[in-house]
Amino acid sequence: MKRSKAPGVKLGCVAVAVFSVLTGSAIAAEAKSIATDRIIVKYRDTASVQSLGANAASVQATRQAERLSRVQTVTTRFGASVQFLRNTGLGSQVWKLDRSRNLTDVAAMAAQIKASDPNVEYAEPDRIMHPLAAAPNDTRWSEQWDLQNTTAGLNVLAAWDLSTGSGVNVAVIDTGYRPHADLAANVVGGYDMINDTAVSNDGNGRDSDARDPGDYTAANECQQGDPAYGSSWHGTHVAGTIAAVTNNGTGVAGIAPNAKIVPMRVLGKCGGYTSDIADAMIWASGGTVSGLPTNPNKARVLNLSLGGGGACDTTSQNAINAARANGAVVIVAAGNESQNVSNSSPANCSGVVAVAAYGKTGARAYYSNYGTLVDIAGPGGDQSTGDSNGILSTLNAGGTTPGADSYAYYQGTSMATPHVAGVAALMIAAKPTLTPDQVESLLKSSARPFVASCSGCGAGMLDAYAAVQAAIGGTTPTPTTSETESNNTLATANAVAAAGTLNATIGSTSDTDYFKVSLPAGKTLTATMTPGKSSVDYDLYLYNASGTQVAKSELGAGKVDTASVKNTGSATATYYARVVYYSGGTGATNGKYTLGLAW
Q1: Known catalytic residues?
Q2: Per-residue model confidence as pLDDT tens digits over 62-82
Q3: pTM confidence score
Q4: DSSP secondary-structure letter at 220?
Q5: Which CATH number is 16-31+135-195+235-391+404-473's, of 3.30.1050.10, 3.40.50.200, 1.10.357.10, 3.30.70.20?
Q6: Which long-range contacts (CB under 8 A, 24 or more apart) does 220-227 make?
Q7: What is the pLDDT of residues 283-330, one digit of tens each?
Q8: CATH number of this structure's domain 35-125
C-alpha cells in the first residue's frame, strides 16, 4: 500500500472457531481437447480429377490453389494463417493453422469455410483425443464419497478428462504441512509467516520452513477454561484434499492432482494473528512483503480454511484486495458456528468466495454457517451419522509432535473450502486467463441445485465437471462503453445499466468520476479499475446510496484496483463507483483508464 495506515489490532486465536475439527505418478497429462490447430475439409469434387488424364496434375494444382485462397480468406478474419497438410483415407483434406486455438473458434472457422465454398461437403475441427480418466488406483479412493459421481459428490473423473490442474499453484494458508508421502511431491516453496515464537512452536519467527511442528496446547494455555488439545495437522488435511498425489497406488486422490500446493504457515498454538494471515495472502499471490524474498511460486488460488467472529477488518479486506489485484481468487470457509456468516471474518469480507458445507446426503451440515454472503456449498462432511461420513484426507499420527503419516476423516467448512479451491485450480488450468471474478461467477453459475435442505448455502452444490466445462466455454465479452462528462458528483454520476467495461479519462488532477449502479438484492458489485499507463496511480472507492464509503482500493502506480460490495438487503439498492486521481498522467492521452463493473 502506498499510504501509511494506522496500526492494526492483533486478534489472537483467529482460526480456532473454523478450523477446529470435530472428531506416484500423475494421472493422464493435461487434456488438450479444448483446443486444436487443424481443420478437416471434405470437398465434393475430389474424385472428378481422375477422369482428366494428362491434364489431371494441372487441374488439381489450380483447384488446390483456389481452395487455399478460400480457406485463407476465412482464417484471416480470425487472425490466423493456414497451410495444406495432407489428404486422408476418406478423401478429405487436413489444413493446419499457425497455432492452436480454442475449439469454439476453430469450429467457427470451419463453419465459414463450408459456407463460403459450395464445393465443401463438410468442414470441422480436427479434434485432439486423449485416454479417458478412469478411477485412480489410490487404495482409499472408494472412501472418498465427496469426489464421486453421486448426488453429493463432485464428479471429478469427468472433470479430469478436461483438466487436472497442471501449472496452477494453490496457497494453503493454514497450520503448514507435514511432508506426507501421499502429498510431498505436490508441495512447492511456501513460508512460515508466524512472527510470535509463542504461537509458532518451532523456536523461531518467520522463515522458509512451512512444516507444521504441531499446534497442541495444554489446558488453559490459550485462555482460562480451555481443555488440552492435541495437534490438528489441519493444513496437511486441507492440502491433501486439493492435491494429494493421485494414481500412485496408495492412500487418497486429490481434486487437482497436477496442481502444486504452496504452504503458508499462519496458524500455530492458539490460532494465528490477522496481520500474519494478511501478509500470507499478499506474499502468496505474488505481492511484496517487507523482509521476505520474492515468492517464486505465485499462487492463483488462496485457500483460507480459517476464521473468527466479528465484522471484516480493514487489514483483511486490504489484503484480499491486493491478492485479487495480483490475479488470485480468495476462497474462505464460512465458519462452523451454525450462525449467519455475516458474523464470521474473513468470510464476510468483500471479494471472497465464501463456502458452506453439506454432508453425504447433500443437506447442510449441522455446524455450517449460512446466509446471503455464502457463495457456494461444498462437501464438508457430517460425522453425526458416522465417522466415515466425514472427509478423508492426509494427516499425521502424532498426538502432539510429528509422528507417522496417516489418514483421517475430518468435518467442517474447513473441509468444504479446499474442494472449491481444487475445482478453481482445475478451471484456471483449463483457461489461465480467467480473472478472480470470472472464477467466482462460473463456480456459481455451474453449481448444481441442492438435492436436500441447504438453506443459506449459496448458489448451489459444487460441480467439478460443470465448472471446468464452463471455464472452457468462457464468458461472453461484456460491452465496452465510454464515460460521459460531467460526472464529478453523485448527482451527475453516469448510470450504468448493464455489467461491462467503460473507457474513461481523468482529465486533470482535480477530476473525479462517479458511476451509478442499481444492484439487485443478493448480488455483489465488483469494480475493477485498470490504469492506461504503468506510471498512473488512480484510486477506487465504492459508496452506498447515502454517499457513505463501503469499500476501497488504493494500490500504487500501474496496479489494478478492485473493490466489491454485496447488497445484503431484500430490494435493489443504489451504489456508486468513484475513480480519483492520486498521481501520474492526466488528459486525453495520459489519463486513460478502464472501469469494469460486474454483478
Answers
A1: 174, 234, 414
A2: 888 999 999 999 999 888 899
A3: 0.67
A4: T
A5: 3.40.50.200
A6: 221/269, 221/270, 222/12, 222/13, 222/16, 222/269, 222/270, 222/271, 223/13, 223/270
A7: 999 999 999 999 999 999 999 999 999 999 999 999 999 999 999 999
A8: 3.30.70
